[in-house]
């Protein structure tokens, strides 16, 4: 039984390595990295345009999950391509990225619907008291919102939707590969058990053939 279990795990690793689509995962990794960089850049640009009507740098917070997701996906392409445990970990990370993308999507849509809502504390919503600088760049706190900020937010919404789609694609790949490996492994295991049964089956008993007796000679 230990041999069968070891053989099953080895077959599963081999099947996983054969079915796991590394080329497609490489493409997903590149897209996720580009989307992460785009979301960070758009959030930074949005803050420069007007920080007063913003949602607490939600784009930067969501990007932390996106960075972890991109790095994790890259590791299973280059380093842990044979490990089911690594793929499962990356699956959990992608689920968290879907949640982060959904939160970012929610606040971006909320901004488009209620553009002039100040979510900062009441004292900080005063234009004279609200003052932010990022890397020495002063952020605008004007009461008017430039039209380009709406364009930036819309592009960020598109990036969030694409990020959710990429995460769903990875989840679909994970489920599909698991089903293929499980199905192939069951067939291999059944063949292994049959072969072992044939080897371990005792030979049939041997009964010697009785000697043939000659018929009595006839006398004339």
List keywords for this structure.
220 residues, mainly alpha, two-stranded antiparallel sheet, rod-shaped, disordered N terminus
Give structural notes:
With about 220 residues, the protein is mostly helical. The protein has a domain at about 20-120 and about 130-170. It contains five helices and two strands; from the N terminus they run H-H-H-H-E-E-H. The protein has helices at about 1-20, 20-50, 60-80, 85-115, 145-200, and strands at about 135, 135-140. A two-stranded antiparallel sheet has the order 1-2. The protein is rod-shaped, with a radius of gyration of 33 Å. Residues about 1-5 and about 190-195 have low confidence and may be disordered. Keywords: Membrane, Transmembrane, Transmembrane helix.
Summarize this entry quickly.
The protein is 69% helix and 2% strand. With 220 residues, it is an all-alpha fold.
Put simply, the count of helices is: 5
Biggest sheet, spatial arrangement of strands: 1-2
Helix content: 55-70%
* Mass-distribution shape: rod-shaped
**Main beta-sheet strand count, sense and barrel state:** 2 strands, antiparallel
* Termini gap: 72 Å
List SSEs in N-to-C order.
HHHHEEH
The Cα radius of gyration reads: 33 Å
- The quaternary state of the protein chains shown equals single chain
- Derived from helix and strand composition plus strand pairing, the structural class reads mainly alpha
Roughly what is the average pLDDT, rounded to an integer? Answer: 76
Number of strands: 2
Strand content: under 5%
Enumerate the spans where pLDDT stays under 50 for 5 or more consecutive residues: 1-7, 189-197
